[in-house]
Amino acid sequence: MTTIDPAKTSRDYQQEAIAEPAHHQEHPDLRIPGLIVFLAAEGMIFLGLFMAYIAFRAVTPDWPPEGTPKLELLLPGINTAVLIGSSFVIHNADQAIQKNDVKGLRLWFGITALMGAVFLAGQLYEYFHLEFGLRTNIFASTFYVLTGFHGLHVCFGLILMLAVLWRSRVPNHYNSEKHFGVQAAEIYWHFVDVIWIILFILLYLL
Amino acid sequence: MTQAAQIQEQANRPAHPEKKGDWKQYFTFSTDHKVIGIQYLVTTFVFYLIGGVLATMVRTELATPESDFVSREVYNSLFTVHATVMIFLWIVPAGTGGFGNYLVPLMIGARDMAFPKLNALAFWMIPPAGILLMSSFLVGAPGAGWTNYPPLSLISGKAGEMIWILSVLTLGTSSILAAINFLVTIAKMRTPGMGWNQMPLFCWAMFATSILAVIATPVLAGALILLSFDVLIGTAFFNPTGGGDPIVYQHLFWFYSHPAVYIMILPVFGMISELISVHARKPIFGYKAIAYSSLAICGLGLIVWVHHMFTSGTPPWMRMFFMITTMIIAVPTGIKVFSWLATLWGGKLDDSSALLFAMGFIALFVIGGISGVMTASVPFDIHVHDTYFVVAHLHYVLFGGSVFGLYGAFYHWFPKITGRMMNEAWGKAHFWLSFVGFNLAFMPMHKLGLEGMNRRIAEYDPKFATLNLICTIGAFLLAMSTIPFIVNVTWSWLRGEPAGDNPWRALTLEWMTTSPPPPENFIADPVLATGPYDYGLAPRSTEVDVPFSDASNPALSAGPSSTLRAKPDPVVAANPSDRGTESNNR
Amino acid sequence: MNIPSQISTLLAGIILTLVSLWYGQNHNLLPIAASEAAPLIDQLFGAMLTIGTGIFLLVIFVLVYSYFRFRRDPDDLSDGPPVHGNIPLEILWTAIPAVIVLGISVYSFEIYNTESGMNPMDHSMAAHSKHSHQVAQMKGSAIAAPLIAQVDPVAKDAEVRQNAATDAIEEKIPLRQDAPAAGNVAPRAGSIPATGQEPLVINAAGMQYAWLFTYPEEIIAGELHLPVGRPVVMNITANDVLHAFWVPEFRLKQDAVPGRQSEIRFVPTKEGDYPIICAELCGAYHGAMKSHVVVESLEAYETWLQSMKVAQTNASDRAIALNPAEMTDSEYLAPYAQEAGVTPDLLHQLHPMS
Q1: B369 to chain A, minimum CA–CA distance in Å?
Q2: Measured between alpha carbons, how far is residue C136 from residues B56, C163, C197, C217, C351 in Å?
Q3: Among B244, B479, C125, C273, which has the minimal tally of Cβ within 10 Å of its Cβ?
Q4: Model confidence over B31-54: pLDDT tens digits?
Q5: What is the CA angle A45-A51-A53, rounded to 5?
């Protein structure tokens, strides 16, 4: 018993607690790590679909199956360039808000949103001009499901950006200290972009 | 007198809640993790009873060799929905959502989860999904087994099939959201002074579980998205007639559904570690070994899924690779089991139902583990795959394992959740009835499977009649064993003996506040004056006399200087020898 | 009497070992071993059961002994000894299970090798001269088109997939190719010794809810008859959903996957009548999808084959006006319904994939 120091084990060192019992602590803001873990889960859905695509491709005797026209590369190529470019553009918005420059933020977000919209429009144009439908064959089905699922994510990213633009009308809603919305939209957009690069290589190039 | 608990309690001040919570809050979109935990537990328990009714119907059908109790189609729906309910609506949400939500923030000294609203959202996805699944019986329930392999699932009833897919997608989403919450909570919200290696083992287990849930569940979502296209729109991803491949579905499905069994068992491993240490009044043996073996199981658990497909079209290299990885999983699992046994050995075991369930868990889980290693062996698995041997194996690990562990956790944490003690005599009756009923129901199935009885059949060869009748009698006993439990919980909740804050004299932080804990849990950040498992804390001017002790050497010491020990917060440690200047986490 | 603890531990260890060994040999859990590979698998099971019994008894002993020996007095509130762990012990109980499971893996691997062989070429029909095999011929047109693009060395002619009874559906299911790297191939199991004896090639087709077996010379039966001691190569496919061909006494199982041709090889060694069971859930009558395999002497087998031939001729006389491809399943199956144990009730359940 002698070596245990009673002074140490009583509550005295918790002075901050004695000052005000049952005080309410500010809930920590952990949304960014939460978003990153969420995107890891999202990435796994895509990974599962990619693996399914690779497996279908491996077991089908000729790929793409007979009668499937080769995919056009020009439009999707431009689309890809637009989407990759938009990732660099949105990064400028982040730089701007770090400097408390809400105007810059609005400008760059606007441009990114526009580029996202161009990408979506390009995708839709391609859909309408393809010569195969969802049920044509296994290649067509995987193509539509993968690109469509990615397109949904682009839509969502677009909505996020528009929401940030809407909110940024309120003065000081975003500042250099507090701009979770901006960060979240940016991280999400990069994620969508990376997924597209993999998808493009898998579907169009290989 | 046990000093450790006294010291730990003195170092923390229990909060004094103003008033009891209102029962109505349990029906609202509450963001308090304790309310959500109780919501999860009650909801999932109701689904457990529903799943139990389905199981009893399955066994009633199987009491005789003929198909005579329900029609064959209904029988197929019974076992399909039984498995879906038990997995997605009982064990996964009860272990992670229920106990995980209630205990993790308390154990790490946090005020709530990282994302309280998300937490409530994750819970409120469960009742609709469960009700949706039940409603499938009105339109022709799904009958392709819980694995739902195409092409069978594509040609059976479309409505039931779609309901199953939607329900499982919703439950999967709920599971992913809960897991994200746990990962962030455990990584970022531990009380100052609690480093990774001071966390209670249940938190380690929850962390490993959540990693699995985040990585594996989305792949199932992907598979189900493709399957629903097949069912609704008529694409041919998994339909061989249109050039699809059913084996791809099996890969995607098992990539989630094998880790799912670890999602179901890892939290229970964590609970068992807590229970055994407290009720045997001994430090957990090899704290770090148990903690890291959870991570090992998590990592290995992701690369064993093909062992469910040894007969369905995997190349030889894959059969061999997955046989070896599956075998290796036995090693970290063995580490845990032997550590629990070493913790029990030489302890001072109390006579509680919680400990009885924990010990029953070990006995039954070991049987399931042994038959698991057997089925991992490819040549043997080719014989027993899809037979009752596998049914026996999975029930030994999921019922004898997970459910017995959950029961033990109920008995152990009930005083914390309600502030009242459970009745021990009823608890004992519950245990023995469950234990005997369980072994009667599932032990004969090993022989049935080896002899040649396949799974998922409504009618079987008359030569299996006797053993099946024994199984059915066991299943009825098992069904009845829930009655003492329900009576016990109901009565204890209303009239049980008041428990006090720390009836088991435990050391982990959830016991350092009042029972039931107030909103926000603690009035000040709790501290670890002792380690979470420092039972038998004694003055250490002299060497502690324990076997194998070389007190000076951390690698050889069995005592408090062992490297395997979870040490207290160096800033406030009760023992001078544990004190340091650098805190772990501040 | 006071026995020192080391001695009692030693005795307990010896007893535990003996009990495990005895049980591993005398468990009486498996049915008759009726194929060449079965005794090997039984030995493997015996070995695993011995180890498993030992571990189980050890754990149960510790639990029960602790429960009674270390029970605390209700008013004893002291703690147990502060033992936090022990690294040598941890290493020991990590290493021993690791060695055990690796041993089981190596043993299983050995058996798998003798049983099926890791070398895919072992399975290749092309590795032998194609003429040395009797391929069950079929009527109707060959559908070799999808196979021309086959890159797989173990490719077989589409002909063997064909089964006169199920032509109509076969044509609707395109063949998938093997992709070993993507972990997706037509499953194979079992092996036959290179005795030089001509293997008997039989095509099996699973359908809801019956097996159809096509013998050489287009003899179709609903049950299997095999001459004892002659190697068998079975090509298995399915016409609608997944099935699995399982004969417990042979210790062999193989999934039947539509669009793939799995293969199973074995040598029946004991005469008798064994059940053939469908082991993969295939619908409502899954439990009724049964047939049986009769392993008999060569004479009895030949007699049966002749009788089948005669029956077949009569049946095809009747059916000559009808191309099987244009018949419904139930019409086609009717002659075989008796042998296959298919009832009219069952036939109503037959519906091709839509």
Answers
A1: 29
A2: 47, 8, 17, 6, 26
A3: C273
A4: 999 999 999 999 999 999 999 999
A5: 105
What pLDDT does residue B8 have? 81
- For residues B224, B225, B228, B233, the Cα torsion angle rounded to the nearest 10 degrees is -160
CB atoms within 10 A of CB C32: 11
Query: Which residue in chain B has the smallest CA separation from A12?
Result: B11
Which secondary structure element, helix H or strand E, spans residue B289, and what is its range? Answer: helix B287-301
Alpha-carbon distance of B374 to B357, in angstroms, equals 26
Beta strands C232-238; C262-266: pairing state: antiparallel
pLDDT at C331 over 60: no
**pTM exceeding the 0.85 threshold for the entire prediction:** yes
CA distance C113 to B99: 46
Strands C243-247 and C272-278: antiparallel
Hey, is C181 helix, strand or coil?
A: helix
Alpha-carbon span B533 to B497, nearest angstrom:
27
**Phi and psi at residue B92, to the nearest 5°:** -60, -55
Distance CA C107, CA C113 (A): 10
C213: enclosing H helix or E strand? strand C210-215
pLDDT in tens, C174-231: 788 888 888 788 888 877 777 778 889 999 999 888 999 999 888 888 999 999 999 9
The per-residue pLDDT for B545 is: 60
Closest residue to C85, CB basis, from B287, B370, B537: B287
Q: Which of residues 5-64 of A touch B (CB under 8 A)?
A: 5, 8-11, 13-14, 16-17, 21-25, 27-28, 30-31, 33-34, 37-38, 40-49, 51-52, 55-56, 59-60
Instruction: Note whether C182 contacts A54, CB cutoff 8 Å.
Output: yes
Q: Which residues of chain B does C257 touch, with a Cβ-Cβ cutoff of 8 Å? A: 240, 246-247, 312-313
Comparing alpha-carbon positions, the chain C residue that sits nearest to A54 is: C182
- Could you tell me where the DSSP H helices lie in chain C? 5-25, 38-69, 87-115, 167-170, 298-319, 329-340, 344-347
Instruction: State yes or no: pLDDT of C118 exceeds 80.
Output: no
Contact yes or no for A62 and C150 at CB 8 A: no
CA pair distance B539, B537, nearest whole angstrom: 7
Do the Cβ atoms of C191 and C114 come closer than 8 Å? yes
Chain A residues with beta carbon closer than 8 angstroms to that of B182: none
Task: Please answer whether residues C239 and C170 qualify as being in contact, where contact means their C-beta atoms are separated by less than 8 angstroms.
Answer: yes
Of all residues in chain C, the one with the smallest CA distance to B372 is C52
Q: Using only the alpha carbons of chain B, give its radius of gyration.
A: 24
Pick from B115-119, B576-580, C82-86: least confident: B576-580
- DSSP character at residue B454: B
DSSP result, C227-251 = ETT--EEEEEEESSS-EEEEEGGGT
**Phi and psi, residue C256, nearest 5°:** -105, 115
Nearest to B214 among A3, A40, A48 (CB): A40
Give the pLDDT band (50/70/90) at residue C130. Answer: very low
- Extract the residue ranges of chain A whose pLDDT is less than 70: 1-25
A4 CA: distance to closest CA in chain B (Å): 5
* Rounded distance between C-alpha atoms, residue B99 and residue B411, angstroms: 12
For B149, the token pair is: 């392999």
What are the distances in angstroms from CA B27 to CA B122, B127, B533?
A: 15, 11, 36
Across the interface, do B221 and A145 touch by the CB < 8 Å criterion? Answer: no
Q: 């069995």: which residue's tokens?
A: B558
